[in-house]
What does this fold into?
Amino acid sequence: MLGKIAAFAALVIVAIIFQTFFASLVSIDNVMPDIYVVLVIYLTLTQGLTYGVLFAFITGIIEGSADPAFLGLSAILKVLLALIVYFMSIRMRLESNSARILTVLIAVAVHNLLYYLIAYNFDIELTIYTSVKYALLEAIYSAVIAVILLYLAKRKLTLKFEA
It folds into this structure.
């Protein structure tokens, strides 16, 4: 049990470090992958609802701390996303990699659309403009990152430490 908690904490720390420091290095025209949403979906589908919601809440609060006006918004949207993905996985079979990648694509687009809609006080024109300019590209970019993560998970690449 302690090992699972340590692995979960390490995953949270690695995700925060990647999203904070390295995502901007791999950005394409100010579009960065949303590793938090990718990992929320991955954890929800592979480890269950508890891990997905917990990861969503922690990373949402940390991500939202950059803008105090919207402190809980990201956390609420990510938790809601984990719940939707979990209940979708119960109703539909999301076991194939293509279904998981499509889920990431749709989830990132919907997450960003809802975030922009609320952040821009339901200004539809500005939300549509920003969504077309950033949200769709970020969804595609995050789906590409999901492909890489699924490939690594399938290959079960691990670090081996020798004494």
